[in-house]
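Dear all,

This email documents one entry for the complex benchmark we are building for the journal club exercise. For each entry we list the sequence lines for every component of the assembly. Then comes the predicted three-dimensional structure of the complex as a token string, followed by one or two observations. Please use this as the template for your own entries, and keep the labels exactly as they appear.
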Amino acid sequence: MSEREKAPAGGSATPAARRIAGSVVSGLLPPLVAVVAAMLATSVLIAAFGGSPGDFLQVIFSVPNDRVLLTIINQSAMLSISGIAAAIGFRMGLFNIGVEGQYIVGSCAGAFFAGSGLVAGPLNILATLVVAALAGAAYASIAGLLKVFRGVSEVISAIMLNYIALTMAGYLVTKYGQASGYTFTTERLPLDAQPLGFKIFADAPGDVWALSSLALILGIGYWFLIARTRFGFELRVTGASSTAALASGVNVKRMTLITMALSGAVAGLVWMPAYFGSVHTFGVPENFQAGLGFLGLAVALLGRNRTLGIFFAAALFAFLSGQSNNLQSAGIAKDVIDITQGTTVLAVVVAYEVVGRRRARSEAERVSRQLEAERAEVVAS
Amino acid sequence: MTTIDVEARGIGKRFPGVVANHDVSLHIRPERVHALIGENGAGKSTLMKILYGVQGADDGEIVVDGRPVTFSSPTDAIAAGIGMVFQHFMLADNLTIAENIVLGAEKRHGIGEAAKREIRTISERFGFGLDPDALVEKLGVADRQRVEILKVLYRGARLIILDEPTAVLVPQEVDALFANLRELVGQGCSVLFISHKLDEVLSIADDITVMRRGTTVGTADPARATKAELAELMVGSELPSPATAESTVTERPVLRLETVTVADETGREVLHDISLTVHAGEVVGIAGVEGNGQSELVEVVMGMMRARSGSIHLGDDDITRLNTRAVRDLGVGFVPEDRHRHGLVLDYPLWENRVLGHQTSAPAVRRGLVSRKGARADAQRIIEQFDVRTPGVDTSARALSGGNQQKFIVGREMSGEPRLLVASHPTRGVDVGAQAAIWDHIREARREGLGVLLVSADLDELIGLSDRLEVILRGRLTARFDPSTVTASDLGEAMTGGGVVAS
Ligand SMILES: Nc1ncnc2c1ncn2[C@@H]1O[C@H](COP(=O)(O)OP(=O)(O)OP(=O)(O)O)[C@@H](O)[C@H]1O
Ligand SMILES: [Mg+2]
């Protein structure tokens, strides 16, 4: 965690200050460089296919209007949750590519449950969150169990499970849902379970969803769990060295199951802000936003599995997507933003590596100057 | 075979917080065995890695046969005739010797009969006695080491660099290795090796270079130098004399194994009918050639393996079916045999490594929360008490030299006043001074009633530290010795199955 990167305590104030400044630079510089590089790459691509990079940059860097701002906030909340779900797996060395499927299953189960009105009033919200999380966890556990007891790679099984999730959700909604227009959806959420939103942007058609705050709560919870608790420590150790974890008394198999379930539980919650905030019903493909689970993996990578990083990455992705809606009018396909997002993740991985090495070198030089005197003594003796 | 003359001049290498090498100069003469000695963290491994192109030097130059060279990778070093065998072997268990050797060097003699012929030739020439078609998983440590050496010879190396090759060997194997090395230099190769065992160094080396605090502080002539002089050059102080402490053995059993039998995944019995008791205040040493069941013995006690039959008690608690966590929680410290795989998370700072294995007890963890403050303070205590050479508790474990990593692990496992210490090779890779210090720590804890199950390949350690010695051979305890009367050769014979069963 961030403390790890700080050099040993002690020493005079100036080097300490310089070190902290160095920390900030090395933490913020790489994503910044990555974004710039990604913009450049996208521009080159657009130019190569006869488009105008100038128009592209102008649209992307225009001041977002209230409507876009609103989308950015709500979307970044959901992306953050998805990123946290992925990060939980990453921290333990699990590549939970199944976030997408768990997200679909959680959303579907949650929507059915909430729509049924089994629990009356605002309590329905809480109960639904529990149901969605449990559904996500249960679905993730399939991949977890397969890995632990049959040695099936979680990546392979999760990819399969992602397809099954989508098909199954479609089937369930058709069978047990209700027709609405051309498609089927779950029963609408009863009015008394619809939380109020926050009307922050006057000119935007809608609210900042109340449950977008879930991202904050989960973000803080994730940080606390990983950085402070014994469970989080064991989870990280298992990710860093499963053999050392074993010798230290961690039951690695159980840890795999729990981590997978936990990751799935968070994944199950991803869509809840949207569901309670505006959609109020679930149906594929119209009344659902597929793909958030996959994006979560990218968000976690970009944010280096840290809470603040994930928030930042989610905001960036939401910002790019939000702005890209205006690209159409400039004659550029909005899908190029997928390229920008992808390149950003790639570039940031490289950038962190470079900065890491540079810092190690400069620190070594600093210390070697400090040790000069001591060494002279030894050589003389 | 053409000979090789390698010289390092003014080598410097810095790491964050540490000057690992500074103005290091060393001349490895053709057809000589050159020993490199020095305290833990003196910079020996770093120098070797630079000579082998694993790490780049910040200053200085390497001169091969009079020509300055620069290595940007081991490939360059091999091309120049320099090969290295690391302390942690890098062999694929499920492949044959030939496949392991040829892997990555297919260009030299192909992958077929020609390659095998070449391997056989080298093996015979230096008296290795290796069969190219044998599976590596069937080999013991000593043979694995020979495969590693053969691997570099196959690639055309004429200078063979060995980082602490004898640390994992029992005395007979050391003799065999040295015979091989003699053969090598007799036929034109040069050898550079590190060892903390000064007897060995004096017996095999033609030249000795001593490093201290990152720099070469002198050379010694093995024909005239004594152990004491070498030690003094290394640490600037006298060699600690082996203390003969009075017995503190009590009647109270701490660990009791009764007719324990263990089988591996394939159903083969790896431990057979083991009965063994460690009393409070007693050190029971397990002597044996590596691979005769000592790892399994440790693992079954630690709950990492299950006994097929028999029972294990810790004091009055039956721990036969307990997992590692539960065993540790009952007051067992554990120094694993492979510090990199089981003892540390290399990328974590020392203070987080202090938590490792002690996740359920203060001061590292309190009420389910990791206590940063407690863990840091206690890591600092270990650094001071066990003389771990490091800039501080925030340094990552990877940045410590091998011996200093080992000291930290021993310090950690002796924290919290354990009832039993299960220690595999507790001083492997540790320099003479630090070794004596660790022994003193163990003796002191023993006086307070600690029971120790000690597995070691170091006969001095076994004899000097144990109250009782048990010999393990092919999964059975085959002999018992009194360390005050046993001789190294008796012990060696029993370990290889040659001797009569003594009592
Ligand atoms: N990758 C690294 N990063 C930072 N510091 C390092 C690294 N490798 C080695 N060091 C430091 O360089 C110094 C010399 O280490 P080196 O491994 O060469 O010692 P050594 O003489 O081989 O000791 P030992 O006998 O314990 O194996 C040590 O202080 C160690 O902490
Ligand atoms: Mg070393």
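Observations: The beta strands of chain A are 178-180, 183-185. Confidence is low (pLDDT under 50) at residues 1-13, 370-381 of chain A.
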